[in-house]
Predict the structure of ABC transporter ATPase.
Amino acid sequence: MIITDHARIWIFQSMRAFTKQETQDIKSEFDNFLLDWNAHGAALLAEYEIINNQFIIVTVDEDQVEASGCSIDKLTKLIKNLEEKHQFGFLDRMNVAYEVNNKIEIMNLLDFKKAVKNSELPAETIVYNNGVTTLSDFRSQWKLPLNKSWAKNLLP
């Protein structure tokens, strides 16, 4: 499947790494979901990827068919169902992912802001930006050093 750089993406971050069984469950749910995912009856050209056993990236090539409000609601329902089953924290947007010694850590946004302001995290700390909305931005801006990220203004 060819998906363009300006394809729309959604990033769902878990509070913890998925177990093997959870990963299998996620794959099964998404494989079935994408078979029937459509917008007003037109099939969406979409794919998903599990990254670092902690993130689900969903991509839709809107050059073919644009995701509608109803189709996005269906995706949200799938995520909520996975959340209820496994308590991943997917929909808690107040958590920040960053790396320490090549390991993903999750911190509440308010605590993260304090840690940055108090110089508890080095400027080179890799920070994840789950707010990117295109595949191109995902490739270039999803993971950046703190001093080049959305949080750079928090540095002392």
Q: What stands out?
A: Strands lie at 8-13, 38-39, 42-43, 46-51, 55-60, 95-100, 103-108, 126-128, 143-145.
